[in-house]
Amino acid sequence: GLRKNTLVVFAGDNGTAVGRPSTVGGRVINGAKGSMLEGGSHIPFIVSWPAVTPAGKISKDLISFADPYATFAELAGAKLPEKIKIDGQSFAAQVQGQTGTPREIAYVQLGERWFVRDAGYKLNEKGELFDLSDAPFVETLIPAETDTETTKAERKRLTAALAGLDPANGKTDEAGGGGGARRQRRQLAAATTKPAGEAGNTPPAGPWKAGDQLASAEAPQVSEKPLEVSADVDAAGKDGVIVAQGGVAHGYALYVKDGKLAFSVRESRALTTISANDALGAGHFQIRATLQKDGALALFVDGKQVATGKAAGLIPQQPRAGFTVGKSGAAAVGDYAVSSDFEAKVTNVRVKTAAAG
Question: Distance from first CA to last CA of the chain, Å, rounded?
Answer without folding.
Answer: 60
